[in-house]
Every structure is written in C-alpha cells, then in structure tokens.
Design a protein that fits this description.
Structural class: alpha+beta
Number of helices: 18
Number of strands: 20
Oligomer: single chain
Distance between the termini: 32 Å
C-alpha cells in the first residue's frame, strides 16, 4: 500500500536520511526505533507529506504522490505528535473534531475518560490529558495511515498501555506507523519493527502479518460553516486587539459616510433654496442682438404644449410690492413680492377660486399668513390690495383683488396673475400702447414633466436668433462645483483615515498569522489545504470590517437623528433636515471590502510560503 523509494534528506548539505527504502503493509503496527537524532521524526514527516524537501519518491497504492502531497495527506494520513500540537484558542471539542472542519468524518465517541474535561479550558489540561486529546483527534480522522510520534511519552504506565491497546485496535483497519523509545511497548504491540541509526535502516523485523478488516461504509459529515467558525474562534482568541481594530475602522467609516452625507445634503439644500427663489422649471430668454420682445412672440411660446406660461419683464417698469393702502406709496407698508409671474395652473387652492379677470390674483399660503397676521385667512378673500409700480420717478398703483390662496408655502412672497395681466393693467395706469412696450428679457415656465434641456433644444431650433438659459442652473452648478471641491478635500482626509485603518488590519493580521503559524500548520496536518487557511484568515478580516460597518451604521443613524434635533432647535422648524443616504453607505462599504482584500495580500503571501515542518517545530 505504502512504499518509500530511495528517500534522501539533507539539512545544510548534511544527510539526515540516506537511501531509505521501506514497504509497509496495509494494516498493523509498524514501529520505528532508534536513538534520538537518528532521523525517526524526519522520516515520519516525509511519510506524512508535511515535508516535501527530499529526494526519492513516495508511492501509495503503487502511484507516486510526491507531486500531490497535500491531497495525499488530506485523504490518507492522520497524526499523533510528540509535542501534542493542539490549538490553544480552540475548545477541547473543536480540537478533537479538527479534521471534520475540513473534510467529512464519521463522528467518534469521546474516549479515555475525557467526559470530565468537556467544560475545561485547554490551558488547564495536564500533559497526559493533552496527549490523550491528541489521540482522540487522530481517531476522529479515520485515515488509511496513522503516524504516531511518541504517543505514550507523557502518559503513566496504565494510560500508556491503554493507548497502545487502542492503537492495536486501530491497526486492524489501517496502518499505524509508530516512533517510540519505549522498547517494551514496541515489542509487545508491533507487527513490524524498523531500527534506525544515523539516517540508515540497520534492521527490519517482521513479527506478524495481520489481515485488514473490511469495515462497512459509514455515514460521514462535515462541520457546517467550518471556516467561519474557525475564523470566529481566532477572532475571539484576541478579543482586545480585535475590538480595537473594529473601533478604529468604525470611526474611520463613520467619518467618511457622515462627511459625504453632510456635504451632499447641504449641497442639495442650497440648490433647493436657489430653485425656491427661481423655479427649477423656468427658462430665461432674450434675443441675440438684444432687440425688444413683443407680446406676439410671447404668445407663440405659449402655444407649445410643454410650456405652461411665458411672460416678459418690461424694461422701464419696476414692481415695488403690494400694500393694503392705495392713497400713497409707503415703503414701510409695502410687502415686497419676489415672484409675480409664476403660473398657477397646477397649484391646489387652500381657499378661494382661480382668477378670471386681469385684476384678480392668487397669493401663496406663506404670503397670505404674513398679510393676515393673526386674522383668519378667509378674511383676505375678496380684499383689495394695491400693486405699486415705478416708471422713472413716477410711482403708481394697480388695484388688485385677492380671489384665492394656494396651499403652497414659498420662500419668496408670491402673487399669481393671469397671462400678461400686469402689462394690460399698467397700460391703463400709465397710458401706453401694449403693442409698443419694450422688454429685453422674458421667462418661460416649462411643464414639470418636461425636461428643460429638451425644451431649450427645441426652442433653439425654432428660434435661432434667441438665447435660452435654464434659470438657476449656473448658480446650482457653481454650488455643486464648490461643494465638490470641499467634499474632495474632506474625502481625501477620510479616505486616508480608512486606508490607514484597513492597512493596520492587514499588518495586524500578518502578525496574527506569524503568531499562529504553528496552529495553521497543525490544521494543514489534519486536512486543511492552503485555500482553507486563506479562507479562515480572510473571514477573520471580513468579520472585523463587518462589525465595524454594523457599529458605524448604528452610530450614523443616531448622529443624523441628533444633528436634525440640533438643527431643528436652532432653526425652530423642520424645513431643513439631513437625510440618511443609503447609496453613500453602500458605496463606502463596498470600497472598504475592496481595500481589505488589498490589505490582506502580505499575510496571504506569507501563508502561501508557510513551511509546515518549520512551523511545527516552533
């Protein structure tokens, strides 16, 4: 079944094993004896596939396994080490079941009176208890070959004999290769004995030729989420250091998502404020050669289905505001109106009706509340107000009648009139011909479902001599550009913070691997391949990032809520609130995962170069 051909092993050009040739039976106990330093343990490491630096070949079932030692070890070999090699950060049960974390095994009963140790900690076990635990672990993996390096070295005579009896029972179903100094036990239980000296086989004795028992196939299973469970055990083995990393990364993530949220919300609030002063659906226009506009041209724009209303601003007439007093203009009694051209077709009414005459107007809800002060809003309906206009040094009033109040509150005090109403009314007050009015600037209000840029493109094609601009777009763009610059500076500092935290995790994980390289080597001896080790290390890093993201998300929600309470208390209203931006969370968190993978390159490269034999010697 197992054969060694011309095995040669050197340490620093000195031969430790010289031309070793051995043929092993399918079952039974084969003992290797000899003085210390003769190469017994080195030979055992080569047979177990954990030492690949040798000359010669290993054949299993007449096939060379030298180039497939990891697969050979994983499927066919189990160990009982002289130094026990237990993972101190795993529980007793996890140590026993370690092989089942990496490949399916048949569950074994707890033997050797370890029931009383189920609640014990690894650090509290005696040497004998650890030796017995190492035996149980080897039993958990029912491999074809069991390699035992001084399996009774730390046991009392009674337990030593008990272990050898169990190994003898094991040898009926598989090959047990034993290295021991206990000559009495070797002679009592061995089926073959090899004696070594100075790296050579000097004697071979065959005592018995046992026949292998054929066992019925048994149901096997693998531990679910094995890599995740091992990574969590590793994480909890150094809780203080792990949670320090979690805290540092949490603060970095919170800084970056909070910074981006504040800047994005502030930018949007400023843009909304700009468009509250000048509606986002408006387009200003004028002729390229600054010729005067006419009502005929304005009416042509009103014929477009995408345009709600078009108006022009008379050059020599300035709207000063409205007042309840029409005898004489007094600035102190006049309410400045910031918007008197907006359409009202899609506005809902709080009370009243829509205008049907040029002198009838609507007012916004916020303007009505200011005009009424403590009075009932309904008292404003039907009431006369005077719109004061200045032409040169001459100030005159137009008599308006309030017929309705919209349910919209506006940033600027606003009145709504019928199309061209103020022009017709001014013509009667100042006695001019409507067809001869002078206006160089006009405004167009686009249907809210229409895209302004598409409307502008169509108007530019139809009126090539006109210039059309999105009102407020340049201001909004300036705000966006400024906020982008501020955000970029803040983002750089936040990015450096999160980058330093993630690479700190990478450095700590590298030190963690160096510290636990012996434990990782033990895992490789009991079925783990390099990819298994990589997954365990990566999962532990991802657990740190995930915990940091959970904590930062909780803090993020609470910080936004606290900030809104502060802003609400300062501004005494809820008009300005910071909103949680899930898009920012997703982007930042995905970026953190990408960076954590990059930061793990050094520790993962270390794993790929890990020497199992050297790690076990430490």
């Amino acid at each position: 079944m197992l054969e060694l051909k011309h095995i040669v092993k050197r340490y620093d050009y000195q031969k430790v094993l010289d031309d070793i040739n051995m043929v092993f039976p399918e079952c039974g106990i084969v003992s290797i004896i000899g003085p210390s330093g003769c190469g017994k343990s080195t030979l055992l490491n080569i047979i177990g596939g954990i030492d690949d630096d040798f000359q010669g070949d290993i054949l299993f079932n007449n096939k060379s396994v030298k180039k497939h030692l990891a697969s050979y070890r994983r499927k066919h070999v189990s160990f009982i080490f002289q130094q026990f090699h237990l993972n101190m950060w795993l529980s007793i049960k996890e140590n026993v079941a370690l092989p089942q974390f990496f490949h399916p095994q048949e569950k074994q009963k707890i033997l050797l009176d370890l029931d009383d140790l189920k609640q014990a900690k690894m650090k509290d076990l005696s040497l004998g208890q650890r030796q017995r635990l190492a035996y149980l672990r080897s039993r958990y993996h029912l491999s074809d070959i069991l390699l035992c390096d001084e399996p009774t070295g730390s046991l009392d005579p009674d337990h030593s004999d008990q272990v050898m009896q169990l190994l003898k029972e094991e040898s009926r179903n598989r090959l047990v290769i034993l290295v021991s100094h206990n000559q009495q036990l070797v002679e009592k239980y061995s089926d073959e004995i090899y004696e070594m000296k100075d790296g050579y086989i000097i004697h071979h004795q065959v005592i018995d030729n046992p026949m292998k028992h054929m066992n019925k196939p048994k149901t096997t299973s693998k531990i679910h989420f094995s890599h995740l469970r091992l990574s969590m055990s590793s994480f909890m083995s150094h809780k203080s250091r792990s949670f320090q990393l979690v805290f540092g990364l949490c603060v970095s993530l919170l800084c970056i998502v909070f910074t981006l949220t504040l800047s994005t919300n502030l930018e949007q609030e400023l843009i909304n404020y700009v468009y509250s002063l000048v509606p986002a659906s408006s387009i200003s226009f004028q002729t390229s050669n600054h010729e005067s506009l006419t009502l005929d041209i304005i009416d042509q724009f009103n014929d477009y289905s995408t345009i709600i209303k078009a108006e022009m601003y008379l050059d020599d007439y300035e709207f000063l505001g409205i007042s309840f007093k029409g005898e004489r203009y007094q600035e102190s009694n006049t309410l400045f109106i910031g918007d008197d051209t907006s359409p009202y077709d899609d506005l809902a009414l709080e009370i009243g009706t829509y205008p049907t005459q040029n002198y009838e107007i609507l007012v916004s809800l916020s303007t009505a509340k200011y005009l009424c002060q403590d009075s009932d809003l309904s008292e404003l309906i039907g009431k006369k107000v005077y719109g004061w206009y200045q032409h040169g040094l001459n100030v005159k009033a137009i008599e308006y009648k309030v017929v309705g109040i919209t349910n919209q509150s506006t940033t600027l005090d606003t009145i709504y009139t019928m199309k061209h109403a103020y022009i017709y009314l001014l013509s009667s007050v100042y006695d001019f011909d409507v067809s001869n009015v002078s206006a160089s600037l006009g405004i167009i209000y686009v249907n809210k479902d229409s895209d302004r840029s598409n409307v502008i493109e169509q108007l530019e094609n139809d009126y090539p001599s006109f210039q059309f601009k999105e009102v407020g777009a340049s201001t909004a763009q300036s705000i966006s550009d400024t906020m982008n610059q501020v955000r970029m500076i803040l983002l750089i500092f936040s990015f450096l913070a999160i980058l330093s935290s993630l690479f700190l995790i990478g450095e700590v994980m590298f030190l963690n691997i160096v510290q636990k390289k012996k434990d990782l080597a033990i895992m490789k001896c009991f079925g783990a391949n390099t990819f298994d080790i990589v997954r365990i290390v990566l999962y532990e890093s991802l657990e740190i990032v995930l915990l940091a993201q959970i904590f930062s998300t909780i803090l993020y929600f609470n910080c936004i809520s606290l900030l809104n309470n502060i802003v609400s208390g300062v501004l005494l209203n809820d008009s300005f609130t910071f909103k949680i931006d899930f898009r920012i969370l997703v982007i930042v968190y995905i970026l953190s995962y990408i960076l954590i993978f990059i930061s793990q390159i050094p520790p993962l490269l270390y794993i790929l170069r890990l020497n199992t034999v050297n790690a076990l010697k430490e």
